[in-house]
Amino acid sequence: MYDLNKFQSKVTTIRKEIDSQLKLVLSKELPQTLYDPMRYMMSAGGKRLRPILLLLACEATGGNFKNGLDAAVAVELLHNFTLIHDDVMDQDDTRRGSPTVHKKWNVNVAILAGDGLIALSYKYLLRSNYHDLSRLGSLFSNTLLEVCEGQAYDKEFESKEDVLLPDYFKMVRKKTASLLSMCAETGGILGGGNEETITALRSFGLNLGIAFQIQDDLLDVMEEQEHTGKTWGSDIRHKKKTMLLIHARNEASSSDREVIEEILAKPNLDTQDVLVIKNVFRKAGTLSLSSQILDKHFNIARISLNKIKNTDGRMALEQYLESVINRTN
Amino acid sequence: MYDLNKFQSKVTTIRKEIDSQLKLVLSKELPQTLYDPMRYMMSAGGKRLRPILLLLACEATGGNFKNGLDAAVAVELLHNFTLIHDDVMDQDDTRRGSPTVHKKWNVNVAILAGDGLIALSYKYLLRSNYHDLSRLGSLFSNTLLEVCEGQAYDKEFESKEDVLLPDYFKMVRKKTASLLSMCAETGGILGGGNEETITALRSFGLNLGIAFQIQDDLLDVMEEQEHTGKTWGSDIRHKKKTMLLIHARNEASSSDREVIEEILAKPNLDTQDVLVIKNVFRKAGTLSLSSQILDKHFNIARISLNKIKNTDGRMALEQYLESVINRTN
Lengths: 329, 329
Prior knowledge:
homodimer, Farnesyl Diphosphate Synthase, 1% strand
């Protein structure tokens, strides 16, 4: 049996190393309007889920996590770029309980800080002379492009009335899951895994990512502001085309569908509206179906790990998966 | 004597090749709100100065330009990313006589189209498995970061009253010259040039870039709308801290300086204001000094080419330099 303490101390070591690398990356001072917001964003206390996944995948395929650090730093920088630009596009004022970059400074500063994080992220990925650099760089770039495509779909959905679940899943694969998939795959390449193992890791990351997003959609109606740093029901208030809303709009009884449409037609939604819609989610079987699909993807992720021969490495990724499954924010 | 027709037909061949590559790069259709604006931007008729420089430098160091095409496509995509995001930040409504991306669509679309161009640009740079990929990728990434720094300084200058010429030159080196320098250097690396030649090419691009920006500043007060697709005197109207304005504010007679400050204090400037300021530029020696500095950098660029052994390649770069010197827009 794999020791949970061993997993936790490994993750703590990795997280510390990533945070100290990120401090180095952002030690430059000038121009202030570029480096201050980048530093602000990177020190706002993210969970570092993506670089940790990359480094655990690197160790699970026989590598030492220290060899993957540059790539791990790169994916964390890239992830934070997406957060800054997404917040601008979504006009979100807070993230992790603090003002977003465009709110603390302005939109121009946020655009440029995001651009700067992309530059830094490639700088770290490419400086290492990894022997598979063309493969790693192409994977990284295709992922960045997919993330942009996913965000474009997400924004398109806002003004589209007939979004269906397959559209949603295409968007989620690109916007959220592709980055987690790339992290696991990159770790596998850096660790020297064989192609079968790398494919398994890619599938692990992809399914984890899809589940992760559905979980986000569910947590929004389950949890309170204290836990998430987001407002409870904020997706509903923003009329976001989540898996929940898409399903309920298509599958609820016709009277319940009318209730939803009436509420969505209002300019501003209050707590009562959120409660009513949440109740429709329950009646339409939306919540239970979402939980089932969530479980299905977590299970595919779990099964993917069977391809990994290294017992300790596999178990660390299993623990990692459990920690995501059990998250409350 | 190098044949001018030979140069022109080489450039025509290169430009055609780049344009047909760019068409391939952007053949994807969906999501429409990502690919339409990217395609719109890339087909708006740029001069392709940067990829041409890269490929001429590649040939001048003994390479075949076809081997550098991926990198050339990459720099053109990267350049167009900077244009889209800069137009958002500067709230410019037209470029090359057409609506800017954020004007034709909206700011969100422009942010994402810029991000997508960065992704595509790295995709093309990294897919080739160039044997110096870590060196090329690091140079590319450091340049992107410098361009962001330059843009940050440029935006900071807008609200800073005491900008001096050294500040201006630092900004121009980063924002404009670093990209041209990187193009020449990348071409030299890809062509297999020795380190001395690569250094000379870097200096060629850097000095060309600095001169290019001063030329832009000068053309703004010299040329008419028909030539540039920009409004005549638009830098003055926007109170941009160009070399001209910075110099005149520091060096004009105290009465002329008062005239400038009075005009700049107005919310909107008209043609008469532009003419008055242009007259101060002349009286303060601003126009002649700028022309001198412009010539100095063009000369350093020209002299840098002496390090290039390949006669045809050197002469092609000389012709290229002349075509930039003689540009009217």
